Amino acid sequence: MQTDPTVQTANFSEQEQIRRDKLQALRDQGASPYGITSFGVTHGSAQLISDFDALEGTTASVAGRMVSRRIMGKASFAHLLDASGTIQIYVKRDDLGEDAYNAFKSMDIGDVLGCEGTVFKTKSGEVSIHATSLTLLSKCLKPLPEKWHGLTDPDLRYRQRYVDMIVNPEVRDVFLKRGKIISAIRDYLDTRGFLEVDTPILHASETGAVSRPFVTHHNTLDIDMFLRIETELYLKRLIVGGFDKVYEIGRIFRNEGMSARHNPEFTSVELYQAYVDYTEMMRIAEGIFGHVADALGLGDTLVYQGQEVSIRAPWARMTMVEAVEKYAGVRYSDWATDADARDCLAQRGIAHEKNATRGDCLPILFDEYAEKHMIQPTFITEYPVEISPLAKRMTNNPAFTERFEIFICGVEYGNAFSELNDPIDQRERFERQAAERRAQGAVNARVDDDFVNALEIGLPPTGGMGIGVDRMVMLFTDSATIRDVLLFPTMKPIGAAAPQDT
Asked: What is this structure's pTM?
């Protein structure tokens, strides 16, 4: 049974009730817009404007949401918003007939219309459609936010992104650019022989030294399963299986804190190439960022939150030891023991685990003192083995690994290394990692025996890298928070306190 939209409820504002009354009047006339299944659109607004010289005087059909209107007696102007922009329509009573013109005047801002007419340009030079027919395709039952103030409440913008994109056109531009960025990443890798693949999102075991997974339950198998916190281990299995170059762009899930740069689900690109090391990953990273800049029509520099960044290769390179010495004034070589390292942090009032090693303490100092200074794109290299469980040790200094992270404007954008392919070393690191996770309460943490088995079959020398796609979009769209580049960021239910950015 169809609900009568004229029935007043406490939740309807006066304007909402007026719109519902109009809808009921249409239904009473047998003209409900919700019964229309299609409308033949021939052109988008951007095409009409860009190709006006060729289209002037021809008939075109457009469709979109009415976002403005000026009624001037027997003639009116309105603007329709479609996927590519806005187009003005000119509506005249003598052309439509009195009934159709009155129906147009009774429509509301926000209604979705179809318009057929002749392409022309007004005296002021605006490309427009002189309407010969109008069709109401969908009724907007809620008033859109007021034109001049827009939708400014951040919480409401994220919850109602569909409204945000209607009243804040710059928001749609961010997501158009997001699509171009992801396409450019694919294009760069595809043209270099990488194969795009899909790997499982549900994992049977809990992995990861730090990241907490989301847990679900598989009813048929009657086992707990975990949403993936990375795509790495499956992708490296494919290198073992004979593919030389693979990548995946996909969602990652981490049950962790939320901040301006962290969302529980996010997008990453991970790629692996056989027979190269982490230095080749540096060249690929520089190439990806440069290719994205070209796809967006940018030059050699961009501005992020007021800071000018030179995005072109070559990028700066600095070891973590060098960065800590430069910005924290601490020389790693002065630590003769792990206790020396812990004492150094304690003297500076920096928290650390009671059994922290020198390799644990070094990155803590980097995070505290050095990271914020990495404004221009920089590869920070040679990470301690303690925090690099999947990276190959350096042959001349086995306490460190062939690993780097990408930093721009004081933010980490990617992580890469020469992949550890020694199955014995890998098992030992996995066992230590699993023990640490169990000590933290992760009862399901265990060694990924199948991955170790894959290494025993033989993983060739391989370079691998992961880049945070959302952070890339933030950088290239000058967005201050990750929520601005996610169409539907994770939010608490209405009525619960919203999390604070950290």
From this structure: 0.90
- Asked if residues 357 and 340 have their Cβ atoms less than 8 Å apart, the reply is no
Distances, alpha carbon 396 to alpha carbons 97, 192, 393, in Å: 86, 32, 9
**Residue 443 CB partners (closer than 8 Å, separation 6+):** none
Q: Do residues 127 and 58 make contact, with C-beta atoms less than 8 angstroms apart? A: no
In Å, what is the CA distance from 119 to each residue of 62, 101, 115, 149, 241?
A: 11, 19, 11, 32, 58
Tokens 């007026």 belong to residue? 18
Q: What is the pLDDT of residues 90-134, one digit of tens each?
A: 999 999 999 999 999 999 999 999 999 999 999 999 999 999 999
Cis bond upstream, residue 213 (ω within 30):
no
Secondary structure, 3-state, 421-478: CCHHHHHHHHHHHHHHHHHCCCCCECCCHHHHHHHHHHCCCEEEEEEEHHHHHHHHHC
Q: How far apart are CA 362 and CA 374, in angstroms?
A: 17
Report the sign of the C-alpha dihedral through residues 95, 101, 105, 108, in that order: negative
Token couple for 449 = 């025996």
Strands 411-418, 397-408: pairing is antiparallel
Angstrom distance (rounded) from CA 282 to CA 406: 9
Q: Which residues contact 49 (CB under 8 A, 6 or more apart)?
A: 85, 87, 127
CB atoms within 10 A of CB 353: 11
The number of angstroms, rounded, from the C-alpha of 165 to the middle of its chain's C-alpha atoms is 16
Pairing of strands 462-468, 378-384: unpaired
Contact (Cβ atoms closer than 8 angstroms) between residue 133 and residue 94: no
Answer yes or no: is pLDDT of 502 > 70. no
Distance CA 47, CA 85 (A): 10
| Among 413, 452, 394, 397, CA closest to 277 | 394
Q: How far apart are alpha carbons 150 and 14 in whole angstroms?
A: 20
Question: Are 102 and 145 in contact, with CB atoms under 8 Å apart?
Answer: no
- Which residues, other chains included, contact 404 with Cβ-Cβ below 8 Å and sequence gap of 6+? 278, 281, 282, 317, 379, 380, 381, 382, 383, 415, 416, 417
Task: List the structure tokens of 1.
Answer: 């049974």
- The per-residue pLDDT for range 333-355, each reduced to its tens digit, is 999 999 999 999 999 999 999 99
Q: What does DSSP say about strands 85-92 and 127-138: parallel, antiparallel, or unpaired?
A: parallel
Domains and CATH numbers, the chain: 14-144 (2.40.50.140), 166-203+230-315+376-485 (3.30.930.10)
Q: Where are the beta strands (DSSP E) in 127-222?
A: 127-138, 195-196, 202-203, 215-218
Q: Please calculate the CA angle 169-173-177 and round it to the nearest 5 degrees.
A: 170
